[in-house]
Structure to design on (203 residues):
């Protein structure tokens, strides 16, 4: 029996057309296609259609859903849509470069839109509890010179924490770091990591 995996792909590079992380994301999706599962794919370029949260957004979010004015519900519509996509997915493929030691602002905007108390996490007797379960995430991270896992990497642990916070513990990071040092070695190393994490099924 063929199963279908619902994949949500998110690309954060500001340089989409020439992006190494996007190219590696393509390879990862192709690899998943070869793994024997049927794929239902939705893709989102995080440079498009995102907004930063603001005081209206925070006010609307703090207002119980049944008491929201129509304009407050409208202010949360994008967040609702992004969360619906996340809930829909079995598997998230996120590609991102490191910008100034952290994540691109577009990706941070997405994170601020999808971390919503009562919907993707809640505070229980033992502290925060993630509400999204049974999902896995592959994250491709590119850097120019900074080694992932080094003291100047504020991407890897941060993203692991964000996904853990909303209930997703199964996070695999594919490192394509130090691209400006040896691009081929970094790229080929990332391809090898993808192929090890997602073995193809023999035809
Ligand atoms: C605005 C900007 C900031 C960057 N900051 C860093 C950085 O802090 N550390 C680093 O190692 N590389 C940095 N880089 C290099 C990128 O991470 C690197 O070129 C990466 O391969 C780009 O990925 P992409 O091709 O998918 O866009 C930066 C690049 C840009 C454009």
């Amino acid at each position: 029996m063929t199963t279908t995996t619902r994949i949500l792909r998110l690309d954060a590079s500001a340089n989409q057309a020439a992006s190494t992380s996007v190219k590696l994301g393509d390879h990862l999706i192709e690899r998943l296609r070869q793994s024997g599962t049927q794929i239902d794919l939705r893709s989102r370029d995080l440079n498009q259609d995102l907004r930063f949260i603001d005081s209206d957004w925070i006010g609307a979010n703090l207002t119980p859903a049944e008491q929201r004015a129509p304009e407050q519900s409208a202010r949360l519509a994008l967040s609702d849509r992004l969360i619906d996509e996340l809930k829909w997915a079995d598997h998230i493929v996120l590609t991102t470069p490191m910008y100034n030691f952290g994540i691109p602002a577009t990706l941070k905007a997405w994170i601020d839109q999808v971390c919503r108390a009562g919907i993707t996490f809640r505070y229980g007797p033992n502290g925060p509890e993630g509400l999204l379960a049974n999902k896995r995430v592959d994250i491709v991270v590119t850097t120019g010179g900074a080694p992932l896992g080094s003291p100047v990497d504020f991407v890897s642990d941060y993203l692991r924490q964000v996904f853990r916070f909303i209930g997703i513990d199964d996070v695999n990071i594919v490192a394509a770091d130090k691209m400006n040092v040896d691009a081929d070695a970094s790229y080929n190393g990332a391809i090898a990591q993808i192929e090890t994490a997602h073995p193809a099924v023999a035809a």
